[in-house]
């Protein structure tokens, strides 16, 4: 043993991990007839980034960084990423592609 501390997450990162886990595992419905839970942001960054998928994708970045720091928690990270992937392959992740056809009415 070298006396080095095992890699860990600070309190802020643990809070973020807890939030991401709750956000990813909260039941909602991303099918066309469903509705994502309100904690999935679809209003920030208009007009380009105000879609649910951007919050979904951006949420995955922190998981990758935390997993690199504490790989022993891979079950937690896998559960979060599985939930993010399931949503990313749904209708609401491509809402703009499914609903915005034709010329831009604002042009």
SSE succession: HHHH
What gross morphology would you assign? elongated
Radius of gyration: 17 Å
Overall mean pLDDT: 89
**In total, how many beta strands?**
0
Number of helices: 4
Structure description:
The model has no long low-confidence stretch (mean pLDDT 89). The chain is elongated. The protein has helices at residues 11-25, 52-69, 74-88, 95-99. With 107 residues, it is mainly alpha-helical. Helix 1 (11-25) crosses helix 3. It has one domain (11-98). Helices cover 50% and strands 0% of the residues. It has four helices and no strands.
List keywords for this structure.
single chain, 107 residues, mainly alpha, 4 helices
Task: Summarize the SSE layout with pairings.
Blueprint: H1 11-25, H2 52-69, H3 74-88, H4 95-99
Helix pairs in contact: 1-2, 1-3, 2-3
What's the short version?
The protein is mainly alpha-helical.
């Amino acid at each position: 043993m070298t006396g080095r501390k095992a890699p860990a997450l600070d309190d802020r990162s643990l809070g973020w991990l807890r939030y991401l886990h709750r956000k990813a595992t909260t039941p909602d419905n991303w099918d066309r007839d469903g509705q994502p839970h309100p904690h999935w942001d679809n209003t920030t960054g208009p007009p380009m980034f105000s879609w649910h998928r951007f919050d979904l994708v951006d949420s995955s970045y922190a998981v990758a960084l935390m997993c690199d720091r504490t790989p022993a928690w891979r079950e937690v990270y896998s559960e979060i990423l599985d939930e993010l992937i399931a949503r990313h392959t749904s209708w609401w992740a491509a809402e703009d592609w499914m609903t915005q056809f034709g010329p831009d009415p604002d042009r």
